[in-house]
Amino acid sequence: MWTTTFVLTFLFFLIQLGTGFSILAIASPKLVQMCRLTKAQFVVLGFTVGASATGILFGLLSLFARDIWLQFAAMVAIACFGLAWSWPNWRPGAGEARAAATWCILSLPIALLTWWLFFGAYSSFPYADIGADVHWMKTAQEYADSGVINPYAAQSYVDLRSAVAGALAGTLGLDLLKFTWTYRFFSILFFLLASYAFVQGIYSASPRKWIAFFFAATGNTFALITNGSLAVASSVVFLGVLMSNADRKASGLSTRPALLLTVSAGATLLVAFAVNNNTFMLALLMAALLLSRILTKSGGNAGLLFLGCVWPAVLLLAHRGSYLFIPTVLVSWLLYLATVRMISAWPSPGIAFLRLLSFGLPLIIAGIVICVAGMRVGYIPPLSANDTFSAITGLILGQRIEGGGELFLGAGPQVATIELGRAMGPLFAICIVLGVAWWWMTRPVLRVPSGAIGTQTEGFAILVWSWIAGCGLSLAVLCGFPFLYRTNAIILSLFTITATEIFCQLLADPGSSSRYRRALVAAVVTLLATILVAAAYAFAWRSDLPLAGYPAFLRPTEIAVVVLLMVTALLTLARSRLVYICGLAGVLGLGVAVDRAGLSGVIRSYSYGALPDSAAVVSHYNADEIEVARWLHGNLRKGIILSDPYTLGMIQALTGAPGAYLFSNLDTVNEAVAKQAKSVVRAVLQPVEGPQRLANACRLIAPLFQERNSETFFQMRRIDALGGIMRTVRDEKPSMQKSAETPSNATVPASQEAANEQAKSTIRGILGSDENAWDLVAIITPRTISWTHLAADQRVSYFPPAEPMDPAIVDELRASPFPVPFANSRTVVVRIPCSR
Questions:
Q1: What domain of life does the native source organism fall in (predicted)?
Q2: What's the rounded Cα separation, in Å, for the pair 819 and 277?
Q3: Which of 329, 542, 762, 803 could form a disulfide with 702 if both were Cys (CB 3.0 to 4.6 A apart)?
Q4: E strand or H helix at 822, and its extent?
Q5: Regarding beta strands 775-780 and 639-642, do their DSSP bridges make them parallel or antiparallel, or are they unpaired?
Q6: Which whole-number Å values give the CA distances from 129 to 138, 619, 646, 650, 668, in the listed order?
Q7: CA of 793: how far to CAs of 633, 646, 660, 665, 737, in Å?
Q8: Structural domain boundaries of the chain?
């Protein structure tokens, strides 16, 4: 039942939230008032702590108790304590009930629309895009079946969904496939809460916060809470907290607190980088909370410690991308303090400098975008800055940017331009640039009663700061340094504040708007949105383009939103101030929402390639592969899976079984490992004499297994669990069997019999040969066969094959020395009995 899944998903978030509150209980409750945290900001902080900590705590509990019900009950008790303890800090008060109701009225329909535009329109249960979810689903399913969290399956960090979702699946029967649907809707609601918490820090008591929240909500491009998106969303809230703690007047600014906070945050980054261990980081976080409690009682700088050490530690615990997010937030905050000082004396030469930056930075950005477009179409020779960036990454990370590496995938101005453009959208970019230019040209000059030019208002500083900071960060992103584009959410948050100030100062503040101006703005935005939808998003120029198939999913919705946009534009002509302000905000918000959603649909080909003619949904698996996965889960509880990465990922996600090789992303398998895996599949399919065919396959499997990391050993032997949990990245291999440690480049013995015996010895060392032995099974599909014939730089289609398996291949496999325990129209399961 979907109702059960919906309730369990809500329980999932409550457990993580309550766990975070329990950890925050170490600190003094007075810190909430000292740091001026609103209730929304406190909830975001608590969830960020709990989402990161629950996986670690579940893993530690699994060391002492195998009963998953006992582990689940212990975590529920911890969560209930946290929710009860923090009740005064997060329950809406009498004066906040109206604000909470307003938030719900705005958020629920926006969340539903966002869910549909970014996920629901492209999916049809049980088919969806879970290509990026296979690792956490695999870990969750394995935990649900065994009661032990595999510390090696995540490879680099523990996904925040694995532990709690696995516990709910193993105890209350949560369907993980259904959970991937409901989880997205709750994720969007969390991001909307984070947006509200951010604007609260900028506009604590001003009605502007609702306009800013509406713009942030309709422009939200996040549809899924992952470790990275959670870290960047909480970083945005962190910026809001810093802004709420900054004195908005130059006379109240002090250099010493800002310097101490910056130094303490930098020290936290260095400690986290040296430790590189999530469990130790959680222990250090608890120690920092305890220290802040002591300082609160002694009257020390508990607030600075909390903002400078505790919140950055929470972000680093969530995701390693916080090494970028925290400095970005601090630089943005320090820039605001500098801006306030610069404009404190009016008139001053600093205003001319700010005007120059306001016009100069967008022109530089436009020049970079034009150059990138020229390189993309071939008019400008492509430039590579990898050597320059490698000097930086080599110094900081100890790794150079090499072709085919993961760092290389996130580097380059072209990647940065695509990611930033997808997040911002052309309509928002055009409107905000025109709005800033309009504001500078019509900016009123304030005069005191004596006639002299007076100081500028607070809105002046916020607008100029947010615009210059957003443009400066955009320029840094477009330089192409690896993964800087992940700060896009911070950039968009800054631009949202800019848009809010422009809207209010030019259109909403008393005496600032005329009926003609309102009608002009509404008409321009509606016309731009209609042109974009009709010419680029809802309809494709040519049906043979790779992007042509994706806009069809959104076509009815986008046309409906455009009609609603036209109706809303008529409200701007009303005489009532509240009505025309809501109408103007609705026009801008709906226009930006449909623009970003349509753009996201168009460039899905950038992620998935051309949409096949027969594809009705965006999915990398089909009904036959789901059938195989369910059969394997019910009948082969001890199996190691071998197939192409797309099929392998799907099978692992639904069975929890280990794979014969590892990968971070479906299309970035290590070339050497992929070559070995392909050779094994080809040996299974090669129609040669039976015994020799089996011997060839087993001989090729041996070097593949010799490189297999600790995950398979852990799942089979349950060894060194604590060592795995304590390390976020596990490089060394345990010495299970001496024969399994033979280097993969070892020379093959001259005798074929000796080679076969060595292969059998290696495989027995890993799989075993007793009654509890594990089985190696190969999943063969038409896509798997195509994958074995591809070159190293080629990729198979993201979408599953539409054609059935060739009956001749199925018949030949049934007659081979490899048993076929299961087969359907598109998939064949083959057991490779090397250890027998």
A1: Bacteria
A2: 44
A3: 762
A4: strand 822-823
A5: parallel
A6: 15, 5, 11, 10, 17
A7: 33, 16, 21, 15, 35
A8: 2-88+101-248, 343-512, 513-619, 623-831
